[in-house]
Design brief:
Elements: H1 2-22, E1 25-33, H2 42-60, H3 63-69, E2 70-74, E3 78-85, H4 87-94, E4 101-104, E5 107-110, H5 115-118, H6 132-135, E6 143-148, E7 189-194, H7 197-205, H8 225-234, E8 238-243, E9 246-251, E10 259-264, E11 274-275, H9 276-289, E12 293-296, E13 298-299, H10 309-319, E14 324-327, E15 346-351, E16 355-363, E17 368-372, E18 384-388, H11 399-403, H12 412-415, E19 419-423, H13 429-438, E20 443-447, E21 465-468, H14 470-482, E22 487-490, E23 494-497, E24 504-505, E25 525-528, E26 532-535, E27 554-557, H15 560-577, H16 583-592, E28 605-606, H17 617-620, H18 627-630, E29 635-636, H19 641-650, H20 655-658, E30 682-684, E31 689-699, E32 704-711, E33 716-721, E34 724-727, E35 733-742, E36 749-757, E37 762-770
Parallel strand pairs: 6-10, 6-12, 7-10, 12-14, 14-15, 15-25, 18-19, 19-20, 20-21, 24-28, 30-37
Antiparallel strand pairs: 1-3, 1-4, 2-3, 5-11, 5-13, 8-9, 16-17, 16-22, 16-23, 18-22, 26-27, 29-31, 31-35, 32-34, 32-36, 33-35, 36-37
Helix pairs in contact: 2-3, 8-15, 9-10
Main location: secreted
Active site: 148 (charge relay system), 225 (charge relay system), 561 (charge relay system)
InterPro entries: PA_dom_sf (IPR046450), PA_domain (IPR003137), Peptidase_S8/S53_dom (IPR000209), Peptidase_S8/S53_dom_sf (IPR036852), Peptidase_S8_Ser-AS (IPR023828), Peptidase_S8_subtilisin-rel (IPR015500), Peptidases_S8_3 (IPR034197), S8pro/Inhibitor_I9 (IPR010259)
């Protein structure tokens, strides 16, 4: 009896403590940054780790418990640690005077052979003497780092052909991945590291069913996303690259002679992603290793900068002179979805280029639709019967679900031997093709829903297929529903260049306004992000489906993930050409030289609008990048780390919180305004009467006199004093004041621009004004 009571008490005790055990989660604890001297040693790093153990040990009442709890010590540039804690300890730790922030370790999401000719870096494969490529030595010896899913080292894009000499002497990194599947270094690929402790701790805290032993501890890319983005930024020349025979050309990155480093922070996505703790550790290593540019095609929902690991870690990189380029996200065309909105980050939207992969659809009645696909076409010129998913629904299946070609909704006897027509939405495009193939279809036509509009994607379907836009889809469905015996045919895909209009904004590209700092227009710029050809992992099929045994060294992908490394490649050229420029000067040069008109000389179109209306700065920021203009911008809006800290003060962040960004305690000035941050774009919300903003321009070109030209937003009169700025030497700075007065109609936004020009340079800044909250 006594034994039974003891057992009952024991199990009662387990029930009492189990909630505390279950409540343990992983956190990123930020203390600020380190001020290591030039002669930093491993002993210095060990001292930092020891201080972290002591700090956390004071809360856990044991240094040993602290050592067990901490799985990363950020010891190189970022000061802090990642640890597994219960909620109570995390809350108490956040109140400690030395602690700037305690952030939950949450996941972030992952968000070419012709791009560079489209942007005039070459013509018909020839690089003219005036090309930014030639002037910047093709990015020679610049080190571009990518935080992503890793790298496929066997890709020719990361081969060392044409790369001379060892890595730059400042380089402290290397290929530390020594696993059987490890990534070896060469003269091109000089760095490869992986970070997954944050991912693993998250899985443990969530009681995940993922088999941890199945996770391959390697920088090798088993997803393809990282290889694609890194090769877009800085892939070496690869002649005769194509995607299953389409788009044949020479693949190369924006800085083809740059060195590259892969930092793997993104892991299998069933219960994974790119975790804050791993991202922060990768930043700490990359800064210490000596990279010149950081590219991140990942992000999360927009949140306060003090709670955003990417914003905080990026600040530490920028503070060390390293530009950080991030994707804006793929949640467009919904407004207020822009992520990575911190003003020190160069944030990139996605737009099209003048190449399309056509897969024509031909109907018996003579109609022809220019669809898109990377699938094989039907053999022969035989017409096949057409059937919609709704017409082919199985038994008691819902008709709408069948039209969407969802699993187990199609009657195979009705589909077999026909071309199946499916509607886009709810399930993945590739899965619709898979369901069509399983049902016995000879081919599939995917029709856009109304929301998707004109945005079509060349997918790698398992059967012949074509993706057509909303308007063509309506014509096709009308034909099928009215014809007695509807018939059609799918022509094999072909690539076409010099299409018009281009660029247009991609429907998926996340839009502003910036919900964290409405006065800072985001994205900053847009770049090619649709149907981009670049390297891929040969460990996975193009569809990522288990039944697909195909592999390809190159693939087309779309997303702001693809546009981000285009800009990172351009930043690499500018780092080489102007090594003395700050990250904000480089950013300004790219923004103020960007273009807002397409190749028909009309305003850039918003592909997310059904009526193909002109795009706005909330879609493209300052415009589409223009490398030729960026290398010689004339003037730049420059900023220092302290300017950004004052911006945080003006945004309402207190001095304790700001310690997460600063080397030492920062004292906020008595008065400052977010409107006066020396940003290359100008946003004013809640305009009532008039408001004045100040800016300062630095001359980085030849002496000259610049005259101001103003494009007034609707309902607003803009004036500038002075109207002329005379520069006599490089580095000279001049200030001006811009006054905006008037009334923008309720719930409307006014768009304009301020342009400074000396007759040769054009320095353009968008102006966005509203009468209320954006």
């Amino acid at each position: 009896m006594k034994l039974s009571i003891s057992i009952l008490i024991f199990f009662s005790f387990l029930l009492l403590i189990s909630p505390a055990i279950a409540a343990k989660k992983s956190y990123v604890v930020l203390l600020g940054s380190h001020s290591h001297g030039l002669e930093v040693t491993e002993k210095d790093f060990e001292s930092v780790v020891d201080s972290h153990h002591k700090l956390l040990g004071s809360f856990l009442r044991s240094d040993e418990k602290a050592k067990d709890s901490i799985f990363y010590s950020y010891k190189k540039h970022i000061n802090g640690f990642a640890a597994t804690l219960d909620d109570e300890d995390a809350t108490r730790l956040a109140n400690h005077p030395e602690v700037a922030a305690v952030l939950p370790n949450k996941p972030k999401d992952l968000y070419t052979t012709h791009s560079w000719e489209f942007m005039h870096l070459e013509k018909n494969g020839v690089v003219p003497p005036s090309s930014p490529w030639r002037m910047a030595k093709f990015g020679k010896d610049v080190i571009i780092a990518n935080l992503d899913t890793g790298v496929w080292p066997e890709s020719k894009s990361f081969g060392e052909h044409g790369i001379d000499g060892p890595a730059p002497s400042k380089w402290k990194g290397g290929c530390t991945d020594k696993s059987p599947d490890g990534v070896p270094c060469n003269k091109k690929l000089i760095g490869a590291k992986y970070f997954n402790k944050g991912y693993l701790e998250y899985l443990k805290s969530e009681n995940s069913t993922v088999d941890l032993s199945s996770i391959i501890n390697s920088t090798r890319d088993y997803d393809g996303h990282g290889s694609h983005t890194l090769s877009t930024a800085a892939g070496n020349y690869v002649f005769g690259a194509s995607v299953f025979g389409s788009g044949i050309g020479t693949a190369k990155g924006g800085s083809p002679k740059a060195r590259v480093a892969a930092y793997k922070v993104c892991w299998p996505f069933e219960q994974g992603g790119c975790f804050d703790a791993d991202i922060t550790e990768a930043f700490d290593h990359a800064i210490h290793d000596g990279v010149d540019v950081l590219s991140l095609s990942l992000g999360g929902d927009p949140i306060k900068y003090s709670e955003d690991s990417i914003a905080i870690a990026s600040f530490h990189a920028v503070k060390k002179g390293i530009p950080v380029v991030c994707a804006v996200g793929n949640s467009g065309p919904t407004p207020k979805t822009a992520s990575n909105t911190a003003p020190w980050i160069l944030t990139v939207g996605a737009s099209t280029l003048d190449r399309e992969f056509y897969a024509p659809v031909v109907l018996q009645n003579g109609h022809r639709f220019m669809g898109s696909s990377h699938s094989k076409g039907l053999t022969g010129r035989k017409l096949y019967p057409l059937i919609t998913g709704a017409q082919a629904k199985a038994g008691n299946a819902n008709e709408d679900d069948a039209m969407l070609c969802k699993p187990e909704t199609l009657d195979h006897s009705k589909v077999k031997g026909k071309i199946l027509v499916c509607l886009r939405g709810e399930t993945a495009r590739l899965d619709k093709g898979k369901q069509a193939a399983l049902a016995g279809a000879v081919g599939m036509i995917l029709c856009n829903d109304k929301l998707s509009g004109s945005s079509i994607v060349p997918d790698f379907h398992l059967l012949p297929a074509s993706h057509i836009n909303y308007q063509d889809g309506q014509v096709l469905l009308s034909y099928i529903n009215s014809a007695r015996n509807p018939m059609g045919y799918l022509i094999p895909p072909l690539a076409k260049v010099n299409t018009k209009p281009a660029p247009t904004m991609a429907v998926f590209s996340s839009r502003g306004p910036n919900t964290i700092s409405p006065e800072i227009i985001k994205p900053d710029v847009t770049a090619p992000g649709v149907n981009i050809i670049a390297a891929f992992s040969e460990a996975i099929s193009p569809t990522r489906d288990a039944s697909d045994n195909r592999t390809t060294p190159f693939i087309t992908m779309s997303g702001t993930s693809m546009s981000c490394p285009h800009v990172a490649g351009l930043v690499g050229l500018l780092r080489n050409l102007h090594p003395d420029w700050s990250p904000s000067a480089i950013k300004s040069a790219i923004m103020t030289s960007s273009q807002v008109r397409d190749n028909t000389l009309n305003p850039m179109i918003d592909g997310g609008s059904l009526d193909l209306a002109p795009a706005t700065p909330f879609a493209y920021g300052s415009g589409h990048i223009n490398p030729t203009g960026a290398i010689d911008p004339g003037l730049v809006y420059d900023l220092s780390p302290n300017d950004y800290l004052e911006f945080l003060c003006a945004s309402g962040y207190d001095e304790k919180t700001i310690r997460a960004f600063s080397d030492e305690p920062f004292k906020c000035p008595p008065a400052s305004s977010v409107l006066n941050l020396n940003y290359p774009s100008i946003g004013v919300q809640n305009l009532k009467g008039s408001v004045s903003v100040t800016r300062k321009l630095k001359n980085v070109g030849s002496p000259g006199v610049y005259r101001a030209q103003i494009l007034h937003p609707n309902g607003v009169v803009v004036s500038v004093k002075p109207r002329f700025l005379k520069f006599e030497s490089v580095g000279e700075e001049k200030s001006f004041e811009l006054t905006l007065a008037g009334v923008v109609p309720k719930d409307r936004v006014g768009y304009g621009a301020l342009i400074w020009s000396d007759g040769r340079h054009v320095v353009r800044s968008p102006i966005v004004v509203s009468s209320g909250l954006f």
